[in-house]
Amino acid sequence: MQDNNTRDARDIQQRLEGLEIKASFMEDLLDQLNLTIYRQQELIDRLTHEVIQLRQQAPEGGSNGPRNLRDELPPHY
To answer: Is 64 inside any structural domain?
Structure first.
């Protein structure tokens, strides 16, 4: 009977260690994902700021209408 209890205790210990290892890997993965999301948000913020600046620099009149591709041909045509 005691041999059975010892085996059960070892099984429980091994399962607990396995869960601790998995939890450790999951914590590391979560940290990596959080860092990735943080960096992506920084990039989104920077790009949004650049788009706002470009819109402010763009001329107001005439650029919103349809463009004629012939106006964009090089002069030698």
So the answer is: no
Q: What is the mean pLDDT of the chain?
A: 88
For residue 10, give its domain range: 2-55
**HSE of 47, CA atoms in CB hemisphere, 13 A:** 6
pLDDT of res. 24: 98
What values do phi and psi take at 27, rounded to 5? -65, -45
pLDDT, residue 72, reads: 73
| Helix, strand, coil percentages in the chain from 3-state DSSP, rounded to 5 | 80, 0, 20
CA dist 37 and 61 (Å) reads 39
Whole-angstrom Cα Rg for the chain: 31
